[in-house]
Amino acid sequence: MHVFSIGDTNFEVDVAKSRISVSARADGMLEINIRIEADDDEFMRLTEDEDAPWSWALYPPTFLLQGLLVAGTDTAPLHGLAVDAGNTDCECSLYMMEYRDVADLRLVELSAQRLAVTGKVGFDGKDLPFAIDMRRAA
To answer: Which of the two residues, 92 and 89, has the higher pLDDT score?
Structure first.
């Protein structure tokens, strides 16, 4: 299973629509760009009941991390990397009906086999735990 969770809800990941790139730059930095799309079918199942917690949403969430620079020139696995919320060089948000800031973002693992990300995202004045955990190409 591919986890894309907000609070207690797993929207699952649409692997075919999601994109991850790590590229070495000439200045000795790696640039990380991640776009993870939640699964449309799972979203429809979760929101079909009018009283469901996410029934107000019209489409599934998307996680974006763009332009994150980290030191290094190879694509060795990254583990436990905290992303500074004040970093103005990169964009990090979760889009679900509007852009929502992600706090306490941590790249638990970014390797050829796995992407695992955790953080918190605000909905209705509450900070909900947020997580992505997905297998990549074997």
So the answer is: 92
E-assigned strand segments in 12-98: 19-24, 29-37, 62-71, 78-82, 91-95
pTM over 0.70: yes
Tokens of 97: 């009906």
Q: Is 124 exposed, middle or buried (0-12, 13-18, 19+ CB in 10 A)?
A: exposed
N-to-C CA span, the chain = 14
Beta bridge partners of 3: 133
Q: What is the mean pLDDT of residues 18-27?
A: 90
pLDDT band at 79 (very low <50, low <70, confident <90, very high): confident
Dihedral angle over CA of 17, 94, 108, 120, nearest 10:
-150
